[in-house]
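Record passed on underneath.
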Amino acid sequence: MERVKVIEASPDAGVLARAADLLRDGGLVAYPTETFYGIAADPRSDLAVDRLYRAKARPLTVPIPLIAGSLDQLVGVAGGLPALARGLAERFWPGPLTLVIPAWNGLSIAVHGGLRTVAVRVPGHLVARSLCEVFGHPITSTSANLSGGTPPADADAVAASLASSLAMLLDGGRAPGGPPSTIVDVVSGVPRLVRPGAIAWEQVLECLE
């Protein structure tokens, strides 16, 4: 595993390019977010997604969430967004709001387990967003720990449990931790709270009003 220091305020372009190349080769890359560390894989690659499930010992019945570098990137790959999703995204992204939207063509079926929906957000951490932008497509964002374990807030914890499975670890120091993102399903056109989190459900509803 290659371990490289990164600084959120000014992520090194060469490091991000190297990480993106590893993702294109089907490798796994751990990276910091505004809460905990996540694992990136190419969600279009059956090989990469299988590696991710194996690395985490994650049940295949549990879908994998994604992050995008920007709303524009997501719209570009997804071919547009429902009006409800776009309105919430414009209000809360970058930030801890995850939206469940229709899955777009080209994603590995294992990412969504055949449900044809996918959970995605634009994170508040510049390293995470920049990795998506350099890679040119949204990436997976499941936490960098074994399934059922505690999400890691520092790179040492990631290395201790997943070093043998990772191609690269982007070490951004200690992550802030805190509550997870709020997950809202907008597929039906009516918002449905899937998981409470950092953004209060009342704030979501007020935005819609």
